[in-house]
Amino acid sequence: MPQIIMEAIATRQSPSAASNSYQNLFVEGGYYVFDGNRVIARFRIGRNGVGRWRLETIDPGFSLVITPDLRSRKYRGIGSSCLVQIIRKFESVFDALKPLDEAVCNCAQHGHAWSPTQSRLSYADAPYSWQWCLVCGAEQLWFPENAECLMWPADAAEIAVRTAGFLPRLHGPVVGRAS
Ligand SMILES: [Zn+2]
């Protein structure tokens, strides 16, 4: 008798074990960096009743959905519709993803890995330059005229005003043209 019970438990466990490992991929509400972009992981049950991990970005109209085979798809809301594209660049989402606290620690030890410098005119025609960190997703911008430097996210509110909402933004070839 005990043996039969053991078998019944073993059979019942195998399908749910697979879905459990997918459900445990991320921490709900956890902060991560995806390819130089800060994202938040959310597990959401869709209309079809299937749960999927979604990585929310700083752009409310743009997110990434992770499938159980660890591929990522980008979701971009356009009006009332939604454009879905498979990201083929990475074998697995974890090739480009790491927990934010791990990335921040790494930058604290080794310094930020800044992108090439980008330049732009502000709304008041004051030129500014900016870079993002490929590891932790931080941004820094500076105004050469008065040698002023701002860092995102520490100076988030001021950056939003000074760049008229241009920064912070999504980075890199995978998601950078989202907005
Ligand atoms: Zn960094």
Specify the biggest β-sheet. 7 strands, antiparallel
pLDDT averaged over residues: 84
**Any low-confidence stretches, pLDDT <50, length ≥5?**
1-13
Q: Tell me what portion of residues adopts beta-strand conformation.
A: 25-35%
Q: Which percent bin holds the helix content?
A: 10-25%
Number of DSSP helices? 4
N-to-C series of helices and strands:
HEEEEEEEHEEEEHH
Radius of gyration, taken over Cα atoms and rounded to an integer in Å: 21 Å
The coarse overall form would be: globular
Q: Provide the list of bound ligands, each named once.
A: zinc ion
Numbering strands along the chain, what is their spatial order in the largest sheet?
6-5-4-3-2-1-7
Given helix and strand content, the structural type is: alpha+beta
Oligomer: single chain
- The CA-CA distance between the termini, in Å, is 63 Å
Number of domains: 2
Q: How many β-strand stretches?
A: 11
